[in-house]
Amino acid sequence: MPRPDSARTWLRWPETAGNPLAYGADYNPDQWPREVWDEDVALMREAGVNVVSLAIFSWARIQPSAGTWDWAWLDDAMDLLHRNGIGVDLATATASPPPWLTTAHPEVLPVTRTGETLWPGARQHWRPTSPVFREHALRLVEAVATRYAEHPALVAWHVNNELGCHNVYDYSDDAARAFRTWLEARYGTVDALNDAWGTAFWSQRYGALDEVLPPRVAASHPNPTQQLDFKRFSSDALRDHLRAEREVLRRLTPGVPVTTNFMVMGETRGMNYAEWAPEVDFVSNDHYTHPGPQSHDELSFSANLTGNLAGGRPWFLMEHATSAVNWQPVNVAKKPGALVRDSLTHVAHGADAVCFFQWRQSSAGAEKYHSGMVPHAGRDSSVFREVVRLGGELRDLAPVVGAHRAPARVAVLFDWTSWWASEQDSHPSDRLRYRAEALDWYSALLAAGVRADVVPTGAPLTGYAVVVAPVLHVVPQALADELTAYVAGGGHLVTTYFSGVVDEHDHAWLGGYPGPLRDLLGIRVEELEPLLDDETVTLDDGTVGTLWSERVDVTDDAVEVLARYAGGDLDGRAAVTRRRVGSAAGGDAGVDGGGSGGSATYVSTRLGVDGLRPVLTAVLDGAGVTSELPQEVRGRVELAVRATEADAFWFLVNRTAEAVEVAVDGDVLLGERGQGATGPLVLGPRGVAVLRRAAR
Asked: CA 402, CA 677: separation in Å to the nearest integer?
């Protein structure tokens, strides 16, 4: 049987209770007495659950010792789930090695940059580059795949779990050897490495690759390119482990799709998922919200990026929380309606599977205060009632299954290398947070009611009227050429402070910032001027900047200054600029969208969500981009669109805690209209409605 390549091949979940979307959770029956299992499957059927991820942390139960195997309990669980119409996303169980393995082979344990060993007692206590761990892990994968290859409950393979969540950076001798091999493949010779790392500085020049170490704790700041390459290597090492397990599974079960759960969320940055996405048969993601004013915007941002990592095709929400988690400083329960809204926002951005961690809330262990579909309070609880409600609403969304994300006209460019490099030590400011700036632009677009795609660097820019590239710190010449061609072709680019500063080796571009983007933007910056915590700058349009400022000189007559600094040492200097290109350079043709010329806009300070409004207005107007939403609900309602050849599915998500009425035409799949069948949609607090409309 050929390996599954169709975007919809993986959508083979048993349609429990008529639900064609995948719905379920991590299931850990080995934490509970056998008599609880029968209650579990009965409640699963009541909720509409049709898939569970099984055996994720079960290595010690499956293989109690090096030479013994215990399959009886897992056979029983697989059979029970199948009898009840529930498919299994079966884990390879390699996420946490059992005590017998780490006792016999402590050399598999990770080592921190300060030389401390990370001991057993939690999870993910293994080195991604350990040959001993790899040997034992693949033996387990082979055994699990051989036993369950033909089991009718098996619908997908789940490689490891949250690869790199706790062990992305290992500084052991195994890692040092693997790092040298990786460097040899990247650079070829030690002389090329010395050039790339700038080792003439601080007498770091290497005579042989055997002298190179990971960037362990040092007397001062470690070599910045060494640090950046170690981040690249560490992501690649985990990806290599993913490939190793995947190849065993494909050899033994070529017709069963393989995935692993990414963690596109918050500040989880160690894995370059743009490079991982082609390695899996379908993209999966885990997401947990963080309390704060942009909490739901961040969820939307992450779901959006995940959908674009999947190439617009459907993807699998492998984990999120029904309510509180256990690992934040203060673990806040979700407000009424948030469980359903959060889940459906992921569906809006392309998820055809909605799953939680976990099915039944644990009674013991480090995650006993993490919510589940069945909480400690049991079936008679508001959480379980919301779980059942969500199962019903997912059934109503059956027509959406398989629909792709409909492209927007605006893109927010996301670059893992710039994220890594811009936040390294010995920089102008250690306050800069790459993802926070990107999220601000996304929130500002939501506030304007404008749909945007969050796309990784390297994705095609064709079709986007506007591309926002915040803190694009690392700009190789090829990327500069791509952005220049994009603008020359009529596109409208926006970038910000600390962009275009270094090349792919983290070497500063000479001649002034922003390096290879200077001519495109028509500006030159001689010096960066980050701000202290209590400092701000004021612009002449009344907005206030924080974190950063720059001495911007305009070098091209085609540049228009959209805002200047007002007061202080930068008084009168350009703060926000726009250079018109092509037909727009001769006048205002691009402002009303009637011209074909492009533009390149630069923002030299952090303006925050509200402060970005004037900049966005100018850019969007110049590109002819307007909101698809009625004026009166822009900012209060998020719009996401999925589409087939015939239909467009409009997801309308209430961003507020108050009811909102939306006057939009279409057949209602989910939600209610007021004032009869033709009245406006009524979105309750944190509510979601879905319309089916004709595809354009």
From this structure: 28
- Three-class secondary structure of residue 686 per DSSP: coil
**pTM for the full model?**
0.96
| 559: β partners | 579
The residues, ordered by sequence, that sit 6+ positions from 506 with a Cβ below 8 Å of its Cβ are: 224, 225, 228, 421, 424, 474
Contact yes or no for 509/516 (Cβ under 8 A): yes
Is the N-terminal amide bond of 120 cis, ω within 30° of 0? no
CATH number of 410-623: 3.40.50.880
Question: Is the sign of the CA dihedral 677, 682, 688, 694 positive or negative?
Answer: positive
CB atoms within 10 A of CB 19: 24
What is the C-alpha separation between 396 and 390, in angstroms, rounded? 10
Beta-carbon contacts of 39 under 8 Å, excluding residues fewer than 6 positions away, are none
Beta carbons of 576 and 602 less than 8 angstroms apart? yes
In angstroms, the CA 484 to CA 470 distance is: 16
Q: Where are the chain's structural domains? A: 16-265+274-288+295-399, 410-623, 635-694
Is 319 a known active-site residue?
A: yes
* Torsion over CA: 520, 522, 528, 534 (sign): negative
Cβ(695)–Cβ(647) below 8 Å: yes
pLDDT in tens, 590-641: 333 345 799 999 999 999 999 999 999 999 999 999 999 999 999 999 999 9
Confirm whether 247 is a catalytic residue.
no
Domain 16-265+274-288+295-399 has CATH 3.20.20.80: yes
Which residues are within 8 A (CB) of 468 and not within 5 positions of it... i.e. 6 or more apart? 410, 411, 412, 413, 441, 445, 452, 494, 495
Which of 8, 17, 101 shows the shortest CA–CA distance to 51?
17
Residue in 35, 116, 135, 162 annotated catalytic: 162
Cα-based distances in Å from 410 to 127, 210, 442, 448, 473: 40, 47, 10, 12, 21
Same fold, 16-265+274-288+295-399 and 635-694: no
Query: Phi and psi of 163, rounded to 5°?
Result: -50, 125
Query: In the CATH scheme, what is the code of domain 635-694?
Result: 2.60.40.1180
Is residue 76 within 8 A of residue 100, CB to CB? The reply is no
With a pLDDT cut of 70, the percent of the chain lying above it is 96
- How many residues comprise the chain? 696
C-alpha distances (whole Å) from 399 to each of 45, 97, 175, 232 are 21, 42, 48, 41
Which three-class secondary structure state does DSSP give residue 200?
A: coil
pLDDT tens for each residue of 244-265: 999 999 999 999 999 999 999 9
Q: How many CB atoms lie within 10 A of CB 197?
A: 25
Does a cis peptide bond (omega within 30 degrees of 0) precede residue 358? yes
Catalytic position from the list 298, 319, 393, 550? 319
* Mean pLDDT (whole number) for 174-194: 98
Predicted confidence (pLDDT) per residue in 454-482, tens digit: 999 999 999 999 999 999 999 999 999 99
Q: State pLDDT tens for residues 301-349.
A: 999 999 999 999 999 999 999 999 999 999 999 999 999 999 999 999 9
Of 625, 599, 354, 348, the C-alpha closest to 483 is: 599
Q: Which amino acid is at 333?
A: A
For the chain, the first-to-last Cα distance in angstroms comes to 37
